[in-house]
Write a structure and sequence with these properties.
It catalyses: Fe-coproporphyrin III + 2 H(+) = coproporphyrin III + Fe(2+); heme b + 2 H(+) = protoporphyrin IX + Fe(2+). The chain is an alpha/beta fold and about 350 residues long. It has two domains: about 15-30 and about 80-175 and about 325-349, Rossmann fold, CATH 3.40.50.1400; about 180-315, Rossmann fold. It contains twelve helices and eight strands. The protein has helices spanning about 30-45, 55-80, 85-105, 125-130, 150-165, 180-200, 215-220, 225-240, 265-270, 290-295, 295-305, 320-349; strands at about 15-25, 110-120, 135-140, 170-175, 205-210, 245-250, 275-280, 310-315. A four-stranded parallel sheet has the order 2-1-3-4, sandwiched between helices. The radius of gyration is 21 Å and the shape is globular. Mean pLDDT is about 95; it is low at about 345-349. It binds the ligand C=CC1=C(C)c2cc3[nH]c(cc4nc(cc5[nH]c(cc1n2)c(C)c5CCC(=O)O)C(CCC(=O)O)=C4C)c(C)c3C=C and fe (ii) ion (2 copies). One fe (ii) ion binds near residues 210 and 251. The ligand C=CC1=C(C)c2cc3[nH]c(cc4nc(cc5[nH]c(cc1n2)c(C)c5CCC(=O)O)C(CCC(=O)O)=C4C)c(C)c3C=C binds near residues 26, 85, 148 and 284.
């Protein structure tokens, strides 16, 4: 690989804008052989596991990967659809819908692509393709409502690292977070109301976010604060009184303390405190994935029932819902503002 990626000297289509949607990534198949390289890439990211590689790599390769790959693959198998991984399916669909909607308004000037931070399609390949098509301005949209170094920042890192190899770099903007965006909160509230209307309403709403180690908050990561702000805004939008909603953090990994309260403990506590019918939403995931469909809708439900609960209804992620697409388009157009008008207008026709 050359130090710099040189583009050909002929002029291309003038100044297009590229929108790159990025989500976490997923294995190619629900098998140990496919989960292993995915987990290796994911858990070797120093933004995700903040232990010096010298200590961590032997543990990861000698212990974690051999033990976890098979177990994780079985979990993936339980949620794998006819379209493969739900996370990939929904992300691809979101990109297609964004492309269609933005295309109607700015088709001449915009290109839309999606990529995964770990696995395929890679950020490097998607970025190269956008620049090959003539995009001289790129908007990066990490699909994480709440900013975390382990998600948003590492997606940006991967884009910056690829651009570091370019001779002729595009201009770049990044969407930092949208945890308190009115359109996003409205889309979540609508998702809950629709669920209440069609599936019935539980006595209590649990809002479960993916956890991160507690020390990341102490070191300045705004993730904890932003999750609390999202939860408060959603409870307010739904008019939920105090005592009828709870915030918790799921998916703990490793031995260090993570953000509390833990979702697993909270499910048991709620059941023991007499809640019989529980609704659960995971506002930090804009696409359904292993962590929602398996950890909450299957495992979490079982834990709640075992502790005395009667029903746990999982409220699907925003996926391809109308209001979420509206909100996403609005977020993108707001970020693109100075680029689209009047500059885009002069290229458009
Ligand atoms: C939504 C935000 C996410 C944050 C923050 C996050 C932090 C984080 N995750 C791990 C470890 C694992 N996460 C895994 C799956 C997974 N994580 C997210 C999102 C966030 N992670 C998603 C969307 C998914 C699902 C992917 C899919 O294919 O559906 C996994 C893999 C599955 C497993 O083996 O359990 C691990 C491992 C850490 C350590 C971390 C913060 C430090
Ligand atoms: Fe995760
Ligand atoms: Fe998990």
């Amino acid at each position: 690989m050359p130090r710099f990626i040189d583009s050909s000297p002929e002029p291309r289509e003038p100044s297009l804008i590229g929108v790159l949607l990025v989500n976490l990534g997923t294995p190619q198949a629900p098998t140990a052989a496919a989960v292993r390289p995915y987990l290796r890439q994911f858990l070797s990211d120093p933004r995700v596991v903040e232990i010096p590689a010298l200590f961590w790599q032997p543990i990861l390769r000698g212990l974690i990967l051999p033990l976890r790959s098979g177990a994780s693959a079985r979990k993936y198998a339980s949620i794998w659809g006819k379209d493969g991984s739900p996370l990939r399916h929904w992300t691809e669909k979101q990109a297609k819908l964004v492309k269609g909607r933005l295309g109607m308004r700015h088709g001449q000037t915009l290109r839309v692509a999606y990529a995964m931070r770990y696995g395929e399609p890679s950020i490097a390949a998607a970025l190269d393709a956008l620049c090959e098509q003539g995009c001289e301005r790129i908007l990066l949209v990490p699909l994480y409502p709440q900013y975390a170094a382990s998600t948003t920042a590492t997606a940006c890192d991967a884009v910056f690292a690829r651009l570091a190899r370019y001779r002729n770099q595009p201009a770049l903007r990044t969407l930092r977070s949208f945890h308190d965006d009115a359109g996003y909160i409205d889309a979540l509230a609508q998702q809950v109301r629709q669920h209440w209307q069609h599936e019935g309403r539980g006595e209590h709403l649990l809002m479960s976010f993916h956890g991160v180690p507690r020390f990341t908050w102490e070191k300045g990561d705004p993730y904890y604060l932003q999750c609390r702000q999202t939860a408060a805004a959603l409870a307010q939008a739904l008019g939920l009184p105090e005592g009828h909603h709870t915030l918790a953090f799921q998916s703990r990994f490793g031995r260090t303390e993570w953000l509390q309260p833990y979702t697993a403990d909270t499910l048991v506590k709620l059941a023991r405190s007499g809640v019989r019918e529980l609704d659960v939403i995971c506002p930090g995931f804009v696409a359904d994935c292993l962590e929602t469909l398996e950890e909450i809708a299957l495992e979490g439900k079982q834990a709640f029932l075992n502790a005395g609960g009667r029903t746990l209804r999982y409220i699907p992620a925003l996926n391809d819902s109308e209001r979420w697409l509206d909100a996403l388009i609005q977020l993108i157009e707001r970020e693109l503002a100075g680029w689209l008008t009047p500059a885009a207008a002069s290229h458009g026709s």
